[in-house]
Every structure is written in structure tokens, then in C-alpha cells.
Amino acid sequence: MKRAPTRDILWLFLGSRLLLVLVTYFGYILLTQEKYSGAPVAFSTFLNNWNQWDATRYIHIAQVGYQSPYDLAFFPLFPLLIAIPGHLLGDWSYLALGMLISNVALLGALFILYQIATDAGGEQVARRTILYLCIFPTAFFFFAAYNESLFLLLSSATLLALRRQRWWLAGVLGLLAALTRSAGVMLAAPYLYELWQARESVLSSKGKLLASALPIVLIPLGLALYCLYCWKLTGNFLAFAAVQSHWGRQTSWPWQGFIQTIFELFWHQPFGSFNQVHILIDAAATVTFIILAIIGRKKLRPTYTLWIALLLLSILISSSIGQRDPFISNRRFILEMFPAFITLAMISITRPRLHKALLWIFPALLATFSLLFVMGKWMV
């Protein structure tokens, strides 16, 4: 196993963080302050501008716990990690801690993804994979107090542990992933596939069979623990699923979101409207990653194809049917689908013009979307 280039990864991480800091500084001041004003803007104002949308829910849960049944849609590990040091440091610290945890988790994920991508396609593919991830148009969610970074870290680390046949480590990481997002429980499927791939070694003795197969129980255990907590709080084991309708989500057929999107774009929404632009962004993100998943099935290890297929299926069957944008938040959910970034890196190796275009387009959109987020615009 080749060692990851620590210095290069750190520079990429710090450089992409600096871009978001500069967007916050220049964007907020120039758009909110009076012209020719000499009044300073407090540092806390810049920090608080990142406390938007779901971040406010995670911070609130970290501070006071689950006060409303609707909060149960937000899984507990991320707010718990904020709450532990936050209770010691005080109220001022929660947002800063949430952002710190998110960014540290991203840094850890970059090292994990470098190893995975190197195994899949070599060092050049690995470098481009983590580059595209850091400058992706919605990568600002990795900077905010969202749980995207944490879930990416835990899910990718689980799959790397499976690749290395470190079964107990994979089980523990999978348990933590299932406590971060409901989608984490689906890591049991890649676990079973890798177990089947290693069946000759696994079946060589009873001891190896137990040591290899038993840890898979830990993955659904993570979800079971949260279900037990939901039952204790509300009397409903599946309260986290029951409240999804409050947040505009409901179970649907995978194709329903596409049908509604077509109607919204070409019939219901006037050209150039706010709604039309948002629908286009989420629909484009969804379709692009479906295409990358299809292309990647012949380029990547089947485990990774299985994982991205499950993630895509999970967002397609929980679309916001009945809302104006049925694929709302998919621009954020696709950040966790790291196999697509590996596939994109592989494609760009043989298409230099695509790589150059992405180096211009991705950062420009990232700066634009980040600014919209800190200004409180509808970017969830």
C-alpha cells in the first residue's frame, strides 16, 4: 500500500478552505455593507453566516437534545460529537465545533479516498479524485456544520476496511456510519459481497468464519440503537422515518421524481424562474451521477458500483414528490457518492480538455453556491 502524499493533500485541503473563507469575507461585506462604509463587521458574523438550514438543526440538537419529534430525522452521531466538547466549552462553541468536526472529517476522508482511488486507477486518478471532490460546486457543505463529511469518512473507511479484509474494523465503522445517516445501514450489502469474494479464505475454518461474518451484525446494530432511542422518546421505533413527510420527503417509485421534474421544467415553471433554476441544478446533479455510476460499473470494483447504486436508489425512492423540486438536496447527497468522483477522474485522464474545463467551472460554481449559502439563500 503506497503512502498518501500528506503534504499535497494538506495543501489541497487548506487551499479549498481558504477559497471558502475568502468567499465569505468578500462576498458578505460587499453585498451587505453600505458603500463607502467604514464600519467593521464582527468576526462572529462571518462564522454565524455558515449556520444555515440543516446546520441550525444539528447545532440545536447538540445544545438541547431532541426536543421535537421532527428533529429525529437528523441522526445522532454528528450532533453528539459536537455536544460532548460543546457542553464543556459553552454555547459560543457549538457552531465552531460543528464546522471543525466537518472539516477534520473531510481531511480524513481525503486520505481514505486517496488510497481507494489509487487501488482503483493509480496515483493520477487518486489526485484528481480528491481534487474534484474539494472543488465540486456543492463541496461547501463539507465546510459547514453538516454531517456530509462525517458520513463520507465513515462509509469510505468501511469500504476500504472491507477491501483490506479487516472485518471487525469494517463492522465498527459501519455501525458509526449507520448512526450518522440512515443510508449507513446499506453498508451491509457491500460487506456481504466482499465476504462472498473472500469465501475461500473465510470458509477455511470455523474461527475465520466467525471472525469474518460476525462483525456484519454491528452495521444494522447502529440503526437498531437509534430505533430504540426513537421508541423511548416517542413510542415509535421508526419515528425518524415517520417524520420525513414533515421535511417534504415521501416514499415513491424511482421514476416518479423524473416525471415530475419534466413537468415542472417544461410546463409548470416559467422560464428563468427561481424554481426552474433550482430544479435544473438538482436534476442535473442526479442525472450526471447516474451516468457516472453506469460508466463506472466497468471501471471500478463491483463493491463500489454496488454502493453508489444503493445510494442513488435511496435518494430516488425518497424524492420530494408534490414539492416544486422533487430532487431537492440531491446536489448535497451526491457528495457522498465517491465512486462517481473516481470515475470522473478516470475519464478526465484521457480527455485533457474535460479536466481543464472542470478546473474552471467547478471552482466558479463553488464560489457562487457558497456565497448563496452564506447569504441564507435556498441551498440545502
Mean pLDDT: 95
* Main pleated sheet: none
Helix content: 55-70%
Structural class: mainly alpha
Radius of gyration: 21 Å
Query: Could you list the spans in which at least 5 consecutive residues all have pLDDT below 50?
Result: none
Q: Please give the domain count.
A: 3
Give the topology string: H per helix, E per strand. Answer: HHHHHHHHHHHHHHHHHHH
What is the terminal-to-terminal distance?
Answer: 38 Å
Residues in β-strands, percent: under 5%
Shape descriptor: globular
Query: Could you tell me the number of beta strands?
Result: 0
Transmembrane segments: 9-31, 97-117, 129-146, 167-189, 209-231, 277-296, 302-321, 333-351, 357-375
Subcellular location: Endoplasmic reticulum membrane
Organism: Dictyobacter formicarum
InterPro entries: PIG-V/Gpi18 (IPR007315)
